[in-house]
Amino acid sequence: HRIWNLTMVTCTITPLAPLDWDDDLPEVTIERAGSAYLAYESHLYGLRDFLHGSSFYGNADGGDQAGDGSGEGAGKKKKEYDLLTISDRKLKKLNYYQVLARKLPLHASTEEIRKAYHKACLKYHPDKTGRGEEDEVFLLVKKAFDTLSDPVKRRSYDSTVDFDESIPAEGVKAEDFYKEYGPVFERNLRFASFNDPARHAKADKPSPTKKKGKGKGKNKGGNKKKEWTSCPPFGDDGSSLDDVHAFYDFWTHFESWRDFTLAAEKETEHDLDSADCRDEKRWMKQEVDRKMKKLKREEMARINLLVERAMAADPRLRREKERKIREKKEKEDAKRRAEEEKAERERVEREKAEAQAAKAKAVEESKKKDAKKIKEQQKKQLRKAKQLFRKLTMAAYQSANPNDGSVSDSAVWDDLEGMNDDIELLCDKLDAMELTSLNDLLGGAEAVSEDRGPGDKVNVAALADVKQCAVETAAGAERQSLLKIQQRNANRQAADEKAREAKAARAAKPWTKEELAALAKAVKKYPAGGANRWESIALFINNLCKQQDPRGKEECIAQFNKVTSSPSPAAAPGGKEDDAGKSAEAGDEWTDAQDAALQDMLRKYPASMDKNERWSKIAEGVEGKSKKQCVGRFKAIREAVKGKK
C-alpha cells in the first residue's frame, strides 16, 4: 500500500470570484463515498495489495481486474481476443497472460491460470477448430500454459514482460523531481524481494515438517541481514530526513528477484530441452548462466544509477548537503580564526619575549660596558694615583733631604733606594682609594703643580706615616696607620665640603658697589704676574670693606672674570681693570638675545648709510635698548677685539 506515497500529484488552484452566500446557511454533514474513496481507504489500511489497480495487474490494453469484472472500477467489459481471426503481427505482440485470457492479470493465481487455459482449450483445441495438432494458435496457448503453470518458468517470464527499464536523465529540476522519479521507483518496486511471485507461491503451500537436526536452525553468521517487508515512502518536499534516508537505504540495498533465464536463452539462442546430449546441455547451461549473471549485473547497475541520480537531484538531500557544507565551513572558519588568534597571541608573546630578551641583553651589555668603563676608569685612577704618589713622595723626600746628597738626622729612610722599595710595595699592594688617601695626606696634586716650586706644599711630615704603612703592608698585618690616614682624610673632606657650601652661600650673595670699587682698585694695585696676587686682592677687599663674611680669592677671581667677560665699554680684557667698577656701577647688562639682535642689525644696515638714521634703525631692531646704548655696546665690542689683537 505504500507505493502510492511515491506518486506526487500536482494541483493547480484557480481562484474564483467571491460568491454572495447567506450568513444563515445550515450546516450539512457529508458522508464520504465513491470508488476513489474506497480505493484510498483500502490502500491506507492495507486492505489491498500494494500494486492493486496499477498497470502491473492490468493487461497490455490496460484492461480490468481478473474475475468477472463486477468489482469496483470494473467499468465496461472488453471483448476477448479471437486468436483465430487477429493478425499474426498482433498475435506476436500478445503476452502469455493475454493469450490465455485478455483480462488475466500478472498476479493471477495458479487456479485462475488453469481455468483460463481450460476456456482457451474449449475454444482453440484442434478438435474444436479442426485445424490439426500443429495449429500455431493452439501451440501458443499450450506454451503459455506450460510457462505460466511452472513457477520457475513463470518467474523468468514475469521478469521481462511489459516492463519499462528507462530511468530519468541527469539534470532534473527540483520542481520536477517528484514527478519524474516517483513513477520510476514505483515501476522498479515490482521486482523487490518481498514481491517475488515464487516466494508467495511457496508461502501458499504448506511446508513439510522437518526434523530438527543438531546445530541446524542456528544463526552461525555475525550480523543478521536486514529483511525488508515493504518499501519506505518516497515522500514529498516536507518529508523528514530520517524518512528520506530510510527510503534511499532501501534502494541502496535493493534485492531484485528478477530472473533473466529466458532473456539469456533468447540472446544465446540455446534451448536446453533441444540438446542432443548431456555434455551439450551442460555447455548450454554454462553459457546461459554466464549471460544471466551479466544481465543481472547490468540490472543492478541500472538500479544503482537510478539511485545515484535520484540522490544527486533530490532537493531534500541537496539542502541537507548544503547545510552540512555550510556547517563544515563555519567550523573550519571558527577553527581557522582560533588558529589565527592563537598564532597572533603566540606572535605577540614571542615578540614580547624577544623584546624583553633584547632589553635584558641590552641592559646586560650596558652593564658590561659600564663595568668595563668603570674598570678602565679605576685602572686609570689607580695609574694616576700611583704616578701622583711617586711624585709626592719624591718631592717630600727631596724637601726633607738637601740636594748635596747628605741625609738629615730626621730622615725617614736611610737612602733613596729604600724609599723607592717601600713606595713600589705600596703601589703594588694598595688600591686607588688607599693611594688617594696617602696622596691627600702628602698634599695632593696641588702640591706638585707646575706653577709651584718643588716641595712648596708637600707635607714632609707625612713621610713617617707612609713609612709606617709600608712596614705594616710588608708584614701583612692590619694597616692601622692607613686607617687613621683615611679617617683624617674623611674628616678633612667633610670640612672642605662645609667650606664649599659656605663659599657657595657667599657666592650667591651679590657684590655691592663698594666691593666692586674695591675690586677695581685691588686689580690695579696688584697687577698680573705678582706672587700671591689674588690672595692679596681678597685681603685688600676684606680690609677695605670690613665685612663680617670676608670674600675669598676664588670669589674675587670669579667676579673679575664675570666683569671682564661681558664686552662693555667699561671693562675690557686688555688690562683696564680700573674701569671694572665703573662698568659694574653702570649696570648696563646685555643679554645674549640682545647681542645677537645688535649683530643682525649691524649687518642689515651698513656703515654707508647716514649715521643718525643707521643707529636709529639699529636701535629699533634691538628690544629694550636705546640708540646711545647700542652705540656704546658697539664701541665696547670694538675695543675688546682690539685688545685681543
What's the quick description here?
Helices cover 59% and strands 0% of the residues. The chain is built from 24 helices and no strands.
Describe the structure.
This protein has 645 residues and is mainly alpha-helical. It contains 24 helices and no strands. The protein has helices at 35-44, 88-93, 96-100, 110-124, 126-129, 136-149, 151-158, 177-188, 197-204, 241-252, 261-268, 278-313, 315-400, 416-429, 432-442, 462-475, 480-508, 513-525, 533-545, 553-565, 580-586, 592-604, 611-621, 627-644. Helix 6 crosses helix 7 and helix 11 (261-268) packs across helix 12 (278-313). It is elongated and about 185 Å long. The protein starts with 34 loop residues before the first helix and ends with a helix. 21% of the residues are buried.
